[in-house]
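Deliverable D4.2, example record:
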Amino acid sequence: MAYRAEYIWIDGTEPTPEIRSKTRILADGETPGIWGFDGSSTNQATGDNSDVVLQPAFQCPDPIRGGDNILILCETLLTTDMSPHPTNTRAAAVAALETYSDQEPLFGLEQEYTLLDPITQWPSGFPPGGYPGPQGPYYCGVGYLKIHGRDLIEEHTTACIDAGLAISGTNAEVMPGQWEFQIGPVDTVTVGDHVWIARYLLYRLAEAHGVEVSIAAKPMKGDWNGAGMHTNFSTKAMRENYDAIIAAAESLGAPGKPEEHLLGYGVGIEERLTGAHETQRYDQFSYGVSDRGASVRIPWQVAKDQKGYIEDRRPNANADPYVLATLMTNTVCAALS
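Output generated by the structure prediction step:
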């Protein structure tokens, strides 16, 4: 007897890395070990030195194949000394968590995405070459004229649960064909592991539904909401007192920090963070209680309870969760040290 291990990794595509995977057949009882791939075909090596190492880093059941089959999320390593490949962003997240583990950082990421017709490249629910009614009834909506793709979303949610991922919710978003799932609360490394696996499962399941999944920051130009990955973050101190909440928010606006963070918050920041559609402008920084037009929102319940978490509303849907979790952990935890 044998089982299948799906080795999954993040490639070197620019400006937005993509998911790659391939299947390894293993005998029952055989432990998955390191493997490799042709980096010259994934923007991670040249043809004359093409091998890149796959190092298993996170493993979970494969909810699509079922049985004893598994998914393995891998770090990419260089063959010369087994050090992290330049495109390996997970290694930095591991280092950040090791540095600040005493502060117990926790994340909840809200991954927005858009379902596209593979032929027209327009969002599901948009008539070919035309537009549906304006935004308003679609957010958390119910009904045939408002909601498109629910069967896929239900299937994806079940798959995430069966894989043991920390999925904590789903909802239809503001634009037709736009959805969101949430991962958390989990630590700096686990949140990236789970978001990447959840993305993989979404893309895989969408193949059978005949739709394309886009995490572009602004899939439709004009008066339509962009797609973000709002980042909810707390440390032990923030979960205990409000002074730490304010200190965390102010640390993200310290000199040089907004620019540093935006560089790691995904492609298309200027298109999405315009000051409209529930965003602050990309070249301004602000925070406020219950303010969805601020860079960082302090939920009203947090202000009331005088403890809790903050929400950084700037990251794009196409951000690398390892990168943004590393930035948030290093910036806020250093300020609270």
